[in-house]
Amino acid sequence: MRTLWAALLLSGVAGWGARAETIQQKGKRVVDEALAALGGQAYLNMQNRVETGRIYSSYNDKVSGMAVDALYTDYLPQPNPPVAGFLGVRVRDARGRKPEQIELKKQDDVILYYEGTGYEVTFRGARPLSDTLIQQFRAATLHSIFYILRQRLGEPGLECESRGADFFENRPVEIVDIIDANNDKVTVYFDQLTKLPTRQLYYRRDPIDNSKIEDATIFSKYREVGGGVMWPFAIRRERNGEKVLEMYWESVKINQDFKDSMFRLAQGLRLLPKDKQ
Question: What is the pTM of this model?
Answer without folding.
Answer: 0.87
